[in-house]
Amino acid sequence: MPEQRFNISDLAGEFELTTRAIRFYEEKGLLAPARNGQQRVYSLSDRVRLKLILRGKRLGFSLEECRELLDMYDPAHGNTDQLRRLMEKIDAKEAQLQSQLRDITGMQKDLSEVRQRCQQALHSHLKPTDYDPDGVLQ
User: Would strands 34-36 and 5-6 be described as parallel, antiparallel, or unpaired?
Assistant: First the structure.
């Protein structure tokens, strides 16, 4: 049974991408479709690679990180190095997101406090120094 083949429009439609985006991944060396004259011919493994690139991007990985992980594919050895590296990247990404979440939570608290001071000032007609002793709003 011959291997399934796809053209660029097939993949663009399936993954809701532009053909330009797929060509961009090709220019970056992440995809290497065969050619039939001027037409790109994508294999099933190219399709899987594209799916993994998009999943990596959705998880917040850079294209270079996606390339690193894809290039580590080694089914003969159970992909253990690839899986370990992926787990390291997941741990790092989770730590980064936790840090960002703490920062966002702090900013929300600060915004809430400033909003409350503004509301108090509007209701009491105080001078700015009365409701903003630290000069935050200036």
Answer: unpaired
d(CA 123, CA 23): 58
Hey, is 83 helix, strand or coil? helix
What is the amino acid identity at position 10?
A: D
In the chain, the percentage of residues whose pLDDT exceeds 70 is 90
pLDDT classification of 133: cutoffs 50, 70, 90: low
Instruction: Please state at what angle helix 19-27 crosses helix 44-58, rounded to 10 degrees.
Output: 90
- pTM equals 0.74
Helices 63-71 and 80-124: angle between axes, nearest 10 degrees = 160
Distance of CA 96 to the CA centre of its chain: 13
The residue type of 99 is S
Which residue matches tokens 């939570």?
Answer: 105
